[in-house]
Amino acid sequence: MTFNVDAFFVADMGDILQKHLRWHEALPRVAPFYAVKCNNKPAVIRTLACLGTGFDCISKNEIDMVLQIGVNPQRIIFGNPCKKPSHIKHAAAHGVDTMVFDCEDELEKVARLHPTAKYARLFAQHSPYSCMCFHIRSLEQIHALYDVIFHNGLSWNNYLHHQR
């Protein structure tokens, strides 16, 4: 006897739509960026893309997945706080310009590999369910990072809040 072991995925796209509408009612001036690592199923990504959602990608593969669906690269944030050089170059080659940073070394690495990048500072909120670690910095350390951006003529984009 053989069993079909193919997995399948069941999702309520109506629930995604309702949550998207609630978001825009409650926070009309705040653009959501969906963390692809949470659920990278093409149906979910396509639904969110059709709704105009932005995407937070942490790897070359996630960037490619979102681009293949037809999302404008300006709606993609490269949200990995420690990016591989080859992934930075790949993002640059495909027009993904917004990069998260968490330390001076990351700023310098991105500036060297993607000179037209725009930078966004990640503010993480602790969660017991998180599998990612972000550095928590003092105000002095944060000011020093901003000084690096402005003294090197780098392009500041925005602040991001990450629910971990």
Automatic annotation (TrEMBL):
Specify the domain of life of the species encoding this protein: Eukaryota
Against InterPro entries, the record matches this protein to: De-COase2_N, De-COase2_pyr-phos_BS, Orn/DAP/Arg_de-COase, Orn_de-COase, PLP-binding_barrel
Which pathway, per its entry? Answer: Amine and polyamine biosynthesis; putrescine biosynthesis via L-ornithine pathway; putrescine from L-ornithine: step 1/1
Query: Which protein is depicted?
Result: ornithine decarboxylase
Q: Does the keyword Heme apply?
A: no
Q: Which coenzyme or cofactor does it need?
A: pyridoxal 5'-phosphate
Identify the keywords attached in UniProt to this record, alphabetized. Lyase, Polyamine biosynthesis, Pyridoxal phosphate
- Species: Eptatretus burgeri
* Gene3D superfamilies linked to this entry: Alanine racemase
- Supply the EC number(s): 4.1.1.17
Matching SUPFAM superfamilies, A to Z? PLP-binding barrel (SSF51419)
Q: Name one GO molecular function term.
A: ornithine decarboxylase activity
Quaternary structure and partners: Homodimer. Only the dimer is catalytically active, as the active sites are constructed of residues from both monomers.
The reactions it catalyses are: L-ornithine + H(+) = putrescine + CO2
